[in-house]
Design a protein that fits this description.
By secondary structure, the chain is α/β, with parallel strands linked by helices. Helices cover about 40% and strands about 15% of the residues. A seven-stranded parallel sheet has the order 3-2-1-4-5-6-11, sandwiched between helices. α2 packs across α4, α6 (about 205-215) runs parallel beside α8 (about 265-275) and α6 crosses α10 (about 320-345). The longest helix has 29 residues, at about 320-345. The chain is globular, with a radius of gyration of 21 Å. The relative contact order is 0.12. The structure holds NADP nicotinamide-adenine-dinucleotide phosphate and guanosine-5'-diphosphate-alpha-D-mannose. NADP nicotinamide-adenine-dinucleotide phosphate binds near residues 14 and 45.
């Protein structure tokens, strides 16, 4: 950065989530001042970002957290007024598809109306401050739903869950605020992306965590739903760069972010089991509880536009991703087994 360039400020909703943690790291490395919105919880929910925390009283502090929630407009306005961000990344969501069938109204309130609250609050702030603030909206390949692959920016949406319907609404709110008020809104349409930090109830992490524990004798079985579903899985660390690149362009637009590779859940299971030298068929059982009332059978992204316009390409392929996650979770299980052994010894 040149001496007279001012430090950019980013505000991230969902900073405690998988993507929020990678994005915060990425922006701090680019010398941004990073502000995150965290929900008040009775237990600590900042595990993924604890390594980034610097006492905010210190002069060199560039990482700040603010209590907030996408259900609360006045609180969002207060945070924006205080932070005065240059860029906002709206990653906050009830992001579990299966859970959205159990909590449809809550999901719509946070994912759809929450995005509207943020856009409208930001619009008010821009009018009052006369400042340009760019905003990234975390859209999803789930929006394509039952439309057959490959899917790109022109593919029609056919959402298949309350989560996906809410993301479609958020996507169109973004476009409407862009067209109506000339706001710099970018919709990223991101296909599934994973990492060792992935929430434990998403299928990739559920598989690698369980196989690691089975390998070390800590767990007997793994219960799964539809293992024939196909996804385009990439690495979250690669995908946050694409979010940032979208906001560095001259004009706002919408972009698909994907690897272009498609694999079934069963293929993922086979690859992960191969790494830990386990016969997966001995341990995996199908439980209809994990089926969805309406499933998304196959997602495979065509990210040609993103590659051409942003110069972005994924660095991590399917096999490398499974290896990264499986090796991480084998190590985690090894430590867990050691702790258990220690505790057993002490109790003798
Ligand atoms: P995640 O790990 O589930 O993180 C979601 C984040 O949203 C967490 O920080 C969570 O806070 C926060 N949040 C939940 N409810 C909120 C509320 N009412 N107000 C404010 N924040 C709230 O999700 P992710 O995988 O990082 O995904 C990030 C975003 O991208 C989400 O919008 C997701 O829907 C979208 N997306 C994800 C993928 C993917 O494959 N990962 C693909 C496409 C789109 P707590 O920590 O307190 O729960
Ligand atoms: N979670 C889960 N648990 N999924 C299972 C299981 C299971 O036990 N068994 C089979 N599956 C299948 C699901 O039915 C789905 O077809 C596939 O595995 C992937 O499920 P998830 O890992 O839960 O991800 P998702 O594709 O539904 O949603 C994720 O990706 C979206 C982008 O396409 C989430 O991160 C969403 O927030 C994101 O928008």
């Amino acid at each position: 950065m040149h001496g007279n360039e001012k430090t950019k400020k980013a505000l991230i909703s969902g900073i405690t989530g998988q993507d929020g943690s990678y994005l915060a790291e990425f922006l701090l490395a680019k010398n941004y001042e990073v502000h995150g919105i965290v929900r008040r919880a009775s237990t600590f929910n900042t595990e993924r970002i604890d390594n980034l925390y610097v006492d905010s009283h210190k002069e060199n502090a560039k990482f700040f957290l603010h209590y907030g929630d996408l259900s609360n407009s006045s609180n969002l306005r207060h945070i924006i007024d205080k932070v005065k961000p240059d860029e906002i990344y709206n990653l906050g969501a009830q992001s579990h598809v299966r859970v959205s069938f159990d909590q449809p109204e809550y999901t719509a309130d946070i994912v759809a109306t929450g995005t509207l609250r943020l856009l409208d609050t930001l619009h008010d702030y821009i009018v009052a401050s006369n400042k340009e603030v760019k905003i990234y909206q975390a859209g999803s390949s789930e929006m394509f739903g039952s439309t057959p692959p490959p899917q790109n920016e022109s593919t029609p949406f056919h959402p298949r869950s309350p989560y996906a319907v809410s993301k479609v609404a958020a996507h169109w709110y973004g476009i409407n605020y862009r067209e109506a008020y000339d706001m710099f809104v970018c919709n990223g349409i991101l296909f599934n992306h994973e990492s060792p930090r992935r929430g434990e109830t998403f299928v990739t992490k559920k598989i690698t965590r369980a196989l690691g524990r089975i390998k070390y004798g800590l767990q007997e079985n793994l219960y799964l739903g539809n293992i024939d579903a196909k996804r385009d899985w990439g690495f979250a660390g690669d995908y946050v760069e694409a979010m940032w690149l979208m906001l560095q362009q001259d004009k706002p637009d919408d972009y698909v972010v994907a690897t272009g590779e498609i694999h079934s859940v069963k293929e993922l299971l086979i690859e992960a089991a191969r790494i830990c030298e386990l016969d997966w068929e001995k341990y995996v059982k199908i439980d209809s509880r994990y089926y969805r009332p309406t499933e998304v059978d196959a997602l495979q992204g065509d990210a040609t536009k993103t590659k051409d316009a942003l110069g972005w390409t994924p660095k991590t392929d399917f096999k490398a991703l499974v290896k990264l996650m499986m090796e991480h979770d084998l190590e985690l299980a090894r430590k867990e087994a050691l702790l258990k052994e220690d505790a057993n010894e002490k109790n003798k």
